[in-house]
Amino acid sequence: LNRLRDTCTGFRPFHRARSELVVDSSGKVFKGFTEAYGKIKGAPAFIAFIGDMAGDYIQEQVGYTGEGIILEATSLGLATCWIGGFFKPEVAASLVTLEDNERILAVTPVGYTSKHESFEERLMSGFGFNHRRRSLSSLVTGLQDAPDWARKAVETARLAPSAINRQPWKFHIEPDAIKISLRTSGPEFNLSKRLDCGIAMMHIEVAARDSGINGEWQFLNSPDVAIFKVIP
Ligand SMILES: Cc1cc2nc3c(=O)[nH]c(=O)nc-3n(C[C@H](O)[C@H](O)[C@H](O)COP(=O)(O)O)c2cc1C
User: Fold this and answer.
1) How far is the CA of 100 from the centre of ligand 1 (A)?
2) Which of 46, 102, 181, 224 has its Cα between 20 and 30 A from that of 27?
3) DSSP character for 164?
4) Are 1 and 44 in contact (CB under 8 A)?
5) What is the pTM of this model?
């Protein structure tokens, strides 16, 4: 947990978005239903994903930053689950020091999963029917002539988590670039689709780097979200 706390403090690619690890095992931040669904019982801590709402593109930036933390937690063997709806913002805010314009957009419990799931837990997680995703061909344009790195990047983004698994994104592969846009159909449910798209941005970048490709992001206006351009 200490390592993860350091990552939260240190990984701050945008100055208006940040993450804070809070040691609290009471679970009082979460609304009842979530703990079973998230399969993380008795988590010793949670992370608050915080945005300064005065900033442009803050939803994307909190999603991107938060997913960086989530992936790091995962690689440390810790279990997490983005919670954007089923938490109590006022309780979370009472455990974190917020600046004037800051808001907690989402949280995650941080804990350890048990290998053996009860019947109830399997029921809640859909008997293995979870992890469903839209097909690549329905999400991506420009796939036909795409180089390997771009193909891998959109495949990795396809698997990204999103609120209620809505996958509110489209990807356009361009020469030396990948653009993310919103699928604007479907409800927002009080949670910006742009936050989900920030999560997908992180997946694209991690996959690109794994292929030895470096790039930089430029934010775009709706319905576009951002474009990742390769740095030659
Ligand atoms: C921004 C965000 C908010 C989420 N909020 C909740 C939530 O409030 N409650 C919950 O049980 N799951 C929540 N989830 C988890 C999603 O339902 C889950 O990631 C998605 O269904 C994909 O699940 P899978 O990766 O197991 O297939 C959230 C996920 C994201 C990315």
Assistant:
1) 28
2) 102
3) G
4) yes
5) 0.93
Dihedral, 182, 161, 41, 24 alpha carbons, nearest 10: -60
Pocket test for ligand 1, best of 131, 162, 199 (most atoms within 8 A of CB): 162
Q: Which tokens belong to 95? A: 């455990």
What is the token pair recorded at 65?
Answer: 């930053």
| Cβ density class 20-29: b for 16+ within 10 Å, e for less | bbbebeebeb
> For 95-135, how does the pLDDT look when each residue is reduced to its tens digit (9 = 90+)?
999 999 999 999 999 988 665 555 555 555 555 556 799 99
CA atoms of 122 and 34, how far apart (whole Å)? 14
186 secondary structure, DSSP code: S
User: Token digits for 137?
Assistant: 């061909």
- Give the tens place of pLDDT for each residue, 201-224: 999 999 999 999 999 999 999 999
Amino acid in the structure at residue 219:
F
